[in-house]
Amino acid sequence: MAKPICCDPKKAPRKAFMRVYLQVPIKNTEIQDPKTRSRQATTYTSPELTADQMVTRKDFSNAPKFPGYKVSTQDKLGLVPNGFVTWLAWEMVPGLRLNNKLGNDPYWTLSAVEREHVRLVFMEGLPQALEKGYGPYTPSLSRLVWHSQTDTLYVFYMLCFMSNRTNIFRSLQLLIMTKVFDVTYRRSSEMH
Questions:
Q1: Which residues, at least 6 apart from 95, have a Cβ–Cβ distance to it below 8 Å?
Q2: How many Cβ atoms from other residues are within 10 Å of residue 51's Cβ?
Q3: What is the predicted pLDDT for the residue at 79?
Q4: Rounded Cα distance, 163 and 157, in Å
Q5: Taking the chain, what is the end-to-end CA distance rounded to the nearest angstrom?
Q6: Nearest-5° angle of CA 157, CA 64, CA 107?
Q7: Alpha-carbon distances of 172 from 23, 133, 146, 150, rounded to whole Å
Q8: Residues with Cβ within 8 Å of residue 2, at least 6 apart in sequence
Q9: Is there a contact between 134 and 160 (Cβ–Cβ < 8 Å)?
Q10: Per residue of the chain (192 residues), what is the pLDDT tens digit?
Q11: Residues 6+ away with beta carbon under 8 Å from 121
Q12: What is the model's pLDDT at position 139?
């Protein structure tokens, strides 16, 4: 998935990523006439948009800001006439994304002391979100950006309402398993 970079012409130095959600036709209906494709039209609210609105209302300081979004429908020449289209922009934040989804996690390149510091900062921030009824949507290092110069751990994508405790436990499991793996990793490294 591509994430184009955009900027506000009035505030040019402030850069943001942009994501576009566009309804596409059901497989094998792509070449049907627009009227037929328009029957597939539906609405969709992206999880990021829901998170943006919540983050803005609750004023989470460790989540990136969403400088803008637009929710609309496709015109009559669209892939799915009257189907959904949503544009989202979220600020680029400084720091190191702790997992790049390619298998070589930058988190593990940090020193043991810094990894422990990241965990402690995460453990400080998690209760604040949980008190407001929110937690990580999908707990993963790929959702975290560590800015060591300011000791800021940005949480990307979705602090969602915790109607049940499943995601809280997943977050804590991730933290505990990371700690256990870190200790095991250090011990095996020391043996060589």
A1: 145, 146, 147, 148, 152, 154
A2: 24
A3: 96
A4: 18
A5: 40
A6: 70
A7: 35, 15, 18, 24
A8: none
A9: yes
A10: 456 677 777 776 778 888 889 999 999 999 999 999 999 999 998 877 877 777 777 667 777 778 888 999 999 999 999 999 999 888 888 898 888 666 677 888 899 999 889 888 888 877 776 676 666 656 667 778 899 999 888 876 544 544 444 555 555 545 544 444 444 344 444 444
A11: 151, 152, 153
A12: 61
Amino acid type, 175: L
Between CA 74 and CA 41 the distance in angstroms is 9
What's the pLDDT at 160?
A: 52
Long-range CB contacts (within 8 A, 24+) of 184-187: 185/108, 186/112
42 Cβ contact partners less than 8 Å away, ≥ 6 residues apart: 23, 83, 84
**CB atoms near residue 88 (< 10 Å):** 21
Encoded amino acid at 151, one letter: D
Question: What six digits make up the tokens of 187?
Answer: 């011990």
* Token pair 């921030």 in the structure block, residue: 125
